[in-house]
Amino acid sequence: MNFEYQVEGGDFSHAGSTSSAVKRIMKQLGVDPAIVKRTVVALYEAEVNIVAHAYRGVISVDLDEERIRIVLDDEGPGIPDIGKAMQKGYSTASPEVREMGFGAGMGLPNMQSNMDELKVDSVVGKGTRVEMTNYFTAKNE
Amino acid sequence: MEEGFHHALKFKTDLCIGCSHCTGVCPTGAIHVQDGHPRLESDRCVDCGRCYLACPVNAIYIEQDDFQTIYNYKCPVILMPSTFSAQFPEKISQRAILSAIYHLGFKYIYEVEKSVDILNEVIRQRLADPDAERPLISTFCPAIVRLIQVKFPSLLPNLLLIRPPMDLTSLYIRRNLMDQGIPAEDIGIFYVAPCAAKIAAIKSPVGEEKAQNDGVINMNYLYNKVFRIIKQGEYQLRDDEFDFHPISRRSLMWTMTGGEIYDLPSGRNLAIDDIQNVSDFLEKVENGDVEGVDYLELRACDESCAGGILCAANRFLVAERQKKRASQKSENVTVEENRLLGYREYLKERISVGEVKPRSMDKLDDDMAVAMRKMKRSFELNRRLPQVDCRICGYKSCQALTDAVVNNKADIRQCIFVQRILEQTDKMTTAEAIRIERGIWGDQKLDKDSMKGLDIT
């Protein structure tokens, strides 16, 4: 089953609506609550990333009996060094932003720890694509 | 204990006018209308009582035990929330209220919140544990525990699995009376319930085997009885308040909104009342959108227990009286004042309750492949519905109707818009449409003669 959601960059007040919609679907399908939670936490993080950094984005969700696969495509500045961005604590945020409690450099690492598979591709000046998958039957975590 | 889920809310079909207001206000979509009357889906109901408040003809009642059963015990004990005395106008004294209760035949009167000081200690200990889940979610309000079971099962590990004051105080009373030499079989503890959820929690406890009380009395029922005795002056004022009075300020604050977090160590502790507010907030917690919160006090009723559906007085007046009484109490009481505190270890050993299991209501089918087929169908159908949520189909919303349709519990032609569309293309006759409407609303509302005598053209 496929679902698609549009995300507007900068619209923080509505950030999270895709996560809530996907959560409802997963609950209706009877996915294990613990997996629902992990998926939604990662998706929420990814959704907010689009809102915070990109101009706009599309979230595509593909569900079958074995797994949920989510692809987030955004038009935005892109990530110059994905390797660094995947490291815990790495952040491009200014000290001022960090002082407010944002930009702790946990975004991508947090997504990674909540998803079985995570892949990030980015072209600077064009946008970023995040592909992430969680399996419903416990593989080796 | 999870099977045969008990609900204290019952419908009186003879009084019911089939207006579906209950359907509209139910936060979990547990009620739909069929044959002119509400049908309760037992698995979805969390006993919050919104339907009871919404019913315009009082066709929903809350079952209670026969009051006469108190006389089956040689030593009947009443266990009442401290908000009970706050139901009465200021001019009626605490002493008059207690004397009237003794007049009814009770041997001992206790306030439920007597054990709050012990609970407060345990919550502090859990909050000090760095390994405990965050936020810790209070299990005090049974409607909220059930809401989490059915709608937010992924938050079940966050529940602080301890007994409510009602159970702890009850354990103390029984132990204490037995220590005084009263035989166990003579002791009957009757709990005065401010809401349906507390009754349901006693009749089918979540996370434990058996309730601690022997019976339940609805608060409004007791209020009426006591008020009558006082008004008619048919009682003797007594001085013996036994173990009743001494109680700390935090204990009296406990059932008010903010009462649980009122005396917790500084940190981020939130108090949220009203089931819809709680639902919205838990949605955010589940998304991981709420960070760094330590403790959540969540209550299904607006103004918490002062707004309990079995309260007799206005919730704001009850809250005001309750807070006023609390302000006159000292922060702490001694063991001499509150003898329950002498049973600290006995109660702490028994404070934990077992695991609370998920009871997801959202699941379309146990088989995920089937659930997916149903969901596809539901999306297809729902896309074509008007999204008016008019309830003419008997369900709370267009979405609720389509979910029922894919589970073979309803017919998509129950939608009045679908009927009109089908009639235009000759796929449905008016007679058929009326037959379906009668199946939902009963014969009376669609009686063709009911407009006779009115000049309608």
Describe this structure in words.
The complex is a heterodimer of chains A (141) and B (457). Chain A has 141 residues and is of the alpha+beta class. Chain A is 36% helix and 28% strand. In chain A, helix 1 runs antiparallel to helix 2 (33-53) and helix 2 (33-53) packs antiparallel against helix 5 (107-114). With 457 residues, chain B is α/β, with parallel strands linked by helices. Chain B is built from 16 helices and eleven strands. Classes of the chains: A alpha+beta (141), B alpha/beta (457).
Counted beta strands of chain A:
5
Please mark out the parts of chain A with pLDDT under 50 across 5 or more consecutive residues, or reply none. Answer: none
Assembly of the depicted chains? heterodimer
Query: What is the residue-mean pLDDT of chain A, rounded to a whole number?
Result: 88
Estimate the helix proportion of chain B, in percent.
25-40%
Named CATH topology of chain A = Heat Shock Protein 90
Helix content of chain A: 25-40%
| Count of distinct strands of chain B | 11
Structural domain tally of chain A: 1
The main β sheet of chain B shows up as: 4 strands, parallel
Mean pLDDT across every amino acid position of chain B? 92
Q: Largest contact between protein chains?
A: A-B, 24 and 22 residues
Classify the beta-strand content of chain B into a percent band.
Answer: 5-15%
CATH homologous superfamily assignment of chain A: Histidine kinase-like ATPase, C-terminal domain
The total domain count of chain B is 3
Helix/strand/pairing class of chain B, anyone?
alpha/beta
Strand content of chain A: 25-35%
The CATH class of chain A turns out to be Alpha Beta
| Unreliable runs of chain B | none
Distance between the termini of chain A: 25 Å
